[in-house]
Design brief:
It comes from Bacteriovorax stolpii (Bdellovibrio stolpii). This is FHA domain-containing protein. There is one protein chain. By secondary structure, the protein is mainly beta. It has one domain: Tumour Suppressor Smad4 (Sandwich). Helices cover about 5% and strands about 45% of the residues. It has one helix at about 100-105, and strands spanning about 5-10, 10-20, 20-25, 35, 45-50, 55-60, 65-70, 70-75, 75-80, 85, 90-95. Strand 10 (about 85) and strand 11 form a beta hairpin.
């Protein structure tokens, strides 16, 4: 199964990325995904596909955190149609890359 996530700034989609087992995100070019945003830490969060193929997002002690449902969270299991925010950006699972069975399993 390949899982893709879309990155947005506001409502503008910036890019779509296929996740690796562990994908690191932050300002630093050393991350798998580097985003030039001063509100992000150099290594802000890690996105992991767990053994059950769920997407886990972990804050890596960033200054401004990751947010779900308007609250800062240390980690979150990202499901289809959910938005997880960090800085002025958010991520969502890209549904068109999922089979119908995968999409159903990843629904809230």
């Amino acid at each position: 199964m390949s899982i893709h996530i879309a990155f947005y700034q506001g409502e503008m989609k910036l890019t779509t990325v296929e996740l690796k087992k562990k994908t690191y995100l932050g300002r630093s070019q050393e991350n798998d995904i580097a985003i030039d945003d001063p509100s992000l830490s150099s290594t802000h969060c890690m996105i992991e596909i767990d053994p059950n193929n769920f997407i886990q997002v972990y804050d890596l002690n960033s200054k401004n955190g990751i947010h779900f449902g308007g609250k800062r969270v240390a980690s979150h299991t990202l499901l289809v149609d959910q938005r997880l925010y960090f800085g002025s950006h958010h991520i969502m699972i890209e549904k068109q890359f999922l089979t119908p069975e995968e999409a159903q399993r990843l629904r809230a």
